Each structure stands twice: as structure tokens, then as C-alpha cells.
Hints:
By secondary structure, this protein is an all-alpha fold. About 55% of the residues lie in helices and about 0% in strands. It has helices spanning about 1-15, 20-25, 30-40, 40-60, 85-95, 105-115, 135-140, 150-165; strands spanning about 125-130, 145. Strands 1-2 form a two-stranded antiparallel ribbon. Helix 5 packs parallel to helix 8 (about 150-165) and helix 6 (about 105-115) packs across helix 8. The longest helix has 18 residues, at about 40-60. It is globular.
Amino acid sequence: MVLNFLVAWYEHNLRRGLPEKNVNTLCPMLTLSYLAEETGREDYLVESVRQFLVHIKYLADRKTGLWYHGWTFEGRHHFAEALWARGNCWYTAGVVDYLDARYLHMGRRAAQAVIAQISEDGTVQQVSYGTGMGATLEAYRAIELCPMTYGQALTILMLTEVRRIA
């Protein structure tokens, strides 16, 4: 049922172009990769790769390889040059299967840091409340940290991967 919904949604929206806000709500890179695996459709994989490459082109910090939170074509800059935690998680989730074993130790350390933020009732703490484009780094620092659904979802994804490679 969910697979049919996703296929129908993407069929409709790929024809007219993915909405820009969609990157924050449905993460086309990962969803299209999943759909390509589940349906065997090459066009989904091609679009997923295209999405990754466009994001890398406009969001990658050349020094760290991490992604900035945003890009504007009007001013041709990355706003406050803040790095984008959720976007970096999506990117990492998408490429994790292609990393070799030398990065396993680093991945385990990162997983332990996230696991340390899970409370006794299973709620992930220290997730940013939500982030519109900030003009300064101080604007990002002022954003409340609290449990959020996307923090829960990314943590579940991470725990699934940790369990898979354990």
C-alpha cells in the first residue's frame, strides 16, 4: 500500500518537477533509491543519482565535504554558510552501502553519539526544532533543540543500519 502510494506520487510529481520544499519533506534522493530497488525501475535510480549530484554541486562545502543548509541563485551564496545536519544524514544514508571498512569505526562512533541522545522512553533528544534559511550562524544557534519526528526517523534508519552491519 505505501509502495503504491509512493510510486503514484512520484509518477505525478516527476512529470511536473519536484517541488523545492519537497527536499525537506520527502527526501527524493533516498525515496527514489528505495523505489528503484523495490520496483526495478531504472528511471527512479537515474533521478535519484541526479538529485544527489545536484545537491552536491550546489551544497557541498569544498573544505569538509559536508553540505550547507541552502543555496541562493540570486546572490550565489550559501546564506550563513551553516552546515545542514539533516541533509548530511540523508547523504550519508544514501552512500553508506558504498563506503569501505576503513570508515566503520567512525560510523560506530557517530552511532554511539546519537544513541547517547535517546532517552529511556525512546525519544531522541537534541534535535533542532526546524530550520528556515538563517542569515547568520547565530540564528541557527538560537534554534530550540527538542524531540522532532525527523530526528526520530533518522535515528530509526541509523539503528536499522547499525543492526544490519553488527
